[in-house]
Amino acid sequence: MEDGTIYRGFGFGADSDSAGEIVFNTAITGYQEVITDPSYRGQIITMTAPEIGNVGVNSVDFESARPWCAGFVVRALSPVVSNWRASGSLDTLLSENGIAGITGIDTRAITRRIRLSGAQRAVITRKVDNPAAAVERARKHPSLEGRDLVREVTASSPYEWDETVWRVGGAGPKPALRHHVVAYDFGIKRGILRRLRSGGARVTVVPAETSAKDVLAMKPDGIFLSNGPGDPAAVGYAVEAARELCRSQLPVFGICLGHQILGQALGGKTYKLKFGHHGANHPVMDLGTRKVEITSQNHGFAVDVESLKGKAVLSHVSLNDNTVEGMRHAELPIFSVQYHPEASPGPNDAAYLFDRFEALMTERRRK
Question: Is residue 3 part of a domain?
Fold first, then answer.
């Protein structure tokens, strides 16, 4: 790690070195969904659950076409894969995608260090005879602040999505198409797309740099701003598009990076958190109902609550650190959340937000 801390373990996955910002994820299950989430681009993931890999991997649970993380750190890599849906092992998946992993590590110690000192850059290396060089490499690795990683994970061209939420035995039934949603791909998860289609939406996914003019020409009933990696302040093109789309008075729904982009489009500011929120057990309060949701989260930046005053209404807050977890426009059908209501992995407490988006589109169509 860049502060000079060194941990020794056993390599797995790709026989190569890797560098990135090291974060810890508190999910007990769902490691496959975690590593295939494009929001982890540029990050080394430390899983706090003690044993990882025991259920293997399968193509159905991928949240994108491939793993995107820079590296993977676990306490104990299971030597056995045991699950009726498994088609391979975690070790093989990382190896095939050029991602280095390390096991036999005290992940609790890493987690405590990150919590105390904040986000750090780190290196996984097999050159164990020169740890000082690895530390220096970590210090020279680019920070996530100021980096536009969206361009590295977004789709190259528009496409239609027509798969619903997975059920035992396969994808669920496809409801009749009631609305047309154009979804910006800043690193979008398949779990989100499945939720939108299961809600009766025809879903058109567009690359991150698509202009508002081109989106409006598709005559959507609603706009979706997706999750994604990197610094929201570095994607000015997305902020400008979101600002124009807000003027259209169409329903707009943002998640994670999409929430941060929307916050900037409405005139707010974003900042980097000390160590971010990564996991499937984060408590969030809905300020409208006072109900608490257990949520799935993955972000290293947040919207500044003070910058929202007079521009948006705070709707959800984190019960861990009181950071902004949701907002809505006071007059227009625009809202967003920092966390992941689609889960994948995680609890489904916040799935109602997709119903809210659908209701806004239905209401607008009736006018």
Answer: no
Considering the candidates 21, 278, 340, 358, report the single residue annotated as catalytic: 340
**Angle at Cα 127 formed by Cα 126 and Cα 129, nearest 5°?**
130
Cα–Cα distance, 21 to 35 (Å, whole number): 14
- pTM over 0.85? The answer is yes
Range of the domain at 72: 10-140
Which of the listed residues 140, 172, 204 is the one where a domain comes to its end? 140
* DSSP H/E element including 252: strand 252-255
Reduce the DSSP state of residue 294 to 3 states and report it.
strand
Determine whether 246 is an active site residue: no
What is the tens place of the pLDDT at every residue in 170-182? Answer: 788 999 999 999 9
363 is catalytic: no
pLDDT tens per residue, range 70-103: 999 999 999 999 999 999 999 999 999 999 999 9
Catalytic entry in 21, 69, 256, 277: 256
Reply yes or no on whether the pLDDT at 67 is more than 80: yes
* Calpha distance 42→250 (Å, rounded): 33
| Helix, strand or coil, per DSSP, at residue 246 | helix
Q: Give 12's strand partners.
A: 101
pLDDT at 112 over 90: yes
299 is catalytic: no
Catalytic residue among 21, 63, 342, 358: 342
